Amino acid sequence: MPQVPRARGRTVVVLASLAALVVAATLLSLAVGARSIPLPDVLHALTGGHATDDAVVVTSQRLPRTLVALGAGAALGAAGALMQGHVRNPLADPGLFGVNAGAALGVAVLVFVLGVDAPGAVVAAALVGAAAAASVLFVLGLRSLQGGAVVLLAVLGTSLAAFLGAITSSFVLLDRQTLDVMRFWQVGSVAGRDTSAAALVLPLVVCGLVLALANGFSLRSLGLGEDVARTLGTRVVRARVVGIGAVTLLAGAATAVCGPISFVGLVAPHLARRLTGHDYAALVPAAALAGAAVLLLADTAGRIVAPPGELQAGIVMAVIGAPILLAVARRRRVVAL
Amino acid sequence: MTGLTLGPVGLRVRRRAVVASLALLLVVVGLGALGLLTGPLGLPVDRVLDALVGSGSPLDQLVVTQRTDRLLGALLVGAALGAAGALTQSITRNPVASPDVLGVTAGASAFAVAASVRPDDVQALLGLPAQSAAVVGTLVGGIVTAAVVLLLAHRGGFDGYRLVLVGLAVNALALAVVAWLLTRAESEDAAVATRWLVGSLDGVDHGLLLPFGLLVGVCLVTCLVLADRLGAMRLGPDVASTLGATSGATVPAALAVSVLLAAGATAVAGPISLVAFAAPQVALRLLGTAGPTPLAGALTGAALLLAADTAAQALPVALPVGIVTSVLGAPFLLFLVARSLRRTRG
């Protein structure tokens, strides 16, 4: 498809500034916490300086959670943009619409019913759960395309999330020990997560992001309606399947490591859309960058708002995201994307 | 359709509605008798009957009191949820809207979990002793949250869509608070709170049944008064005002009744999911009425919850009734949404 040069230049500027924001948020996340560490010391620790106390804090505690937040934020942001584009619902979010809850249920069944907790199996279970939930949503969501039944789908998505959560908690009820694990996992946090699982899902996230970027180009024509898209040479079914696959990989991988985190996938695309407009080829990467920045900032804020404890990133995201959802809801009409 | 005239009062009677209502009543009576007469202790029928009339041994009486409490709890909570769901569905004209979308259950849950995790703070806030602080806190939490949702959603009237969306946002926030409180709790408190969060009739408080029964009674009478205007509202705001049915107070009154019923039910049994949504829709299909009516919803809700509780008790592992209702209700919800989506498409 021919590009308008000026639009491309604008996209480059937008993506570059979002990338700069992510870098700034990363540095902030490394420097801020119960113990504040000046930026030069952070950089020194990263480049392999002396093993001072500060350096140990940075490399052993803050670096892992920062990397997890980067990956999970980008994954959830991109997944949210794809979901919003495919089901054309401005409220779509892997957390609110139950994809993360599906992944969480998969993990709960595996760990607490079958008693398996090998990282590979956990990731696989999360992906299966996410795929099931994403498929239900896409199939029903695509049905609603022509009707503008935005709200109905939103109710369905949140009901799906609540239902899957109820099943998950029924497993938890049967055993005190699993409850103690689940109640911390179910909040959604980037701190204290299993780094071996994180290393395991990294290829999945990369793969999902590549699929998402490619899918963004298909969404350009799909946004004109399936018939027009078909005339323009887009393979509609393949594009939908790639969309489901990418959302599954991204949301499933993020949930397998962090637990279910809502609102990143809602907030990031809305922020990105302000900058890029509705061109999904630019919106998807912008939403991924915005998601990484938002989740990093949420995690960093959670460390300092309630000393001596911490607020988990999942809670901070709900506090940030709910008012944004309210703002979308209080507009005169909810317009289908 | 036949008419029934009694002096100046005329009543329209639909045969199908009457037959279906009688069948539901029969189900309630049958399941109720089953629940009273059978149980893990295997009391013989004559001793149960003796205890019911107050002449059995103290132990028998204790067992039978527990069974009657559970039975009454199921009937009242089911009726309250069914009627509350019918009211919200009528006002929002949305088949999947239940009082949950008004934030009642999530708000009530947040307060209830706070009461069990941080009892001292909640007692200080309400100035009440521990036992009543939890119940009152649940009730107040549900009502306050619903009021916040309604205030935020009010913009020169209640648009059904905006109401649902604002409710979703407030719900998400309340549930995040619940999750956060659970991470701050001691292990034992968290276990109790999690069990409560599923919704269960295991420990229905005997002392709550009478006030809750009165509340349900008053609310159902109010529903009866509102019935005609609600019927007009279901046709849409334009038709309703043509029929003279938008006398300002109908929507607020119906919403208030719905919130009271749902908050009360949550205070008695915890947030039992999907009964409020499913009961009016099942009633609508059984009775063949034009829309979800509160009284039919109440009857169906009572029958559904009693059936679900009977099933939950018959399972090999005793599960709270809330799990049974979510597992059975969710496919029905999916089916209804899929159908509504197809209809809006055409």
Determine the mean pLDDT of chain A.
85
Helix and strand element order of chain B: EEHHHHHHHHHHHHHH
Order of helices and strands of chain A: HHHHHHHHHHHHH
In round numbers, the mean pLDDT of chain B is 83
Give the total of beta strands of chain B.
2
Structural class of chain A: mainly alpha
What does the radius of gyration of chain B come to?
A: 21 Å
Name of the CATH homologous superfamily of chain B: ABC transporter involved in vitamin B12 uptake, BtuC
Q: Biggest chain pair contact, residues each?
A: A-B, 55 and 56 residues
User: Helix amount of chain B, in percent?
Assistant: over 70%
Distance between the termini of chain A: 22 Å
* β-sheet strand percentage of chain B: under 5%
Main location (chain A): membrane
Organism (chain A): Luteimicrobium xylanilyticum
Keywords (chain A): Cell membrane, Membrane, Transmembrane, Transmembrane helix, Transport
InterPro entries (chain A): ABC_BtuC-like, ABC_transptr_permease_BtuC
What is the structure about, briefly put?
Chain B: It is a multi-pass membrane protein. The complex is a heterodimer of chains A (337) and B (346). Chain A is mainly alpha-helical.
Description:
Chain A has 13 helices and no strands. Chain A is mainly alpha-helical. The longest helix of chain A is centred in the N-terminal third of the chain and has 35 residues, at 53-87. Chain A starts with a helix and ends in a 7-residue tail after the last helix. Chain A has helices at residues 5-31, 39-46, 53-87, 99-114, 119-143, 150-173, 176-185, 195-222, 226-231, 236-258, 264-276, 280-304, 313-330. Helix content of chain A is 77%, strand content 0%. By secondary structure, chain B is an all-alpha fold. Helix content of chain B is 76%, strand content 3%. Chain B has helices spanning 15-37, 45-52, 58-92, 104-117, 119-126, 130-153, 160-184, 187-198, 206-233, 237-242, 250-269, 275-287, 294-314, 321-345, and strands spanning 2-6, 9-13. Chain B is globular, with a radius of gyration of 21 Å. At the A-B interface, helix 5, helix 6, helix 7 and helix 13 of A face helix 7, helix 8 and helix 14 of B. Chain A: One of its GO terms (molecular function) is transmembrane transporter activity. Chain A: It is a multi-pass membrane protein.
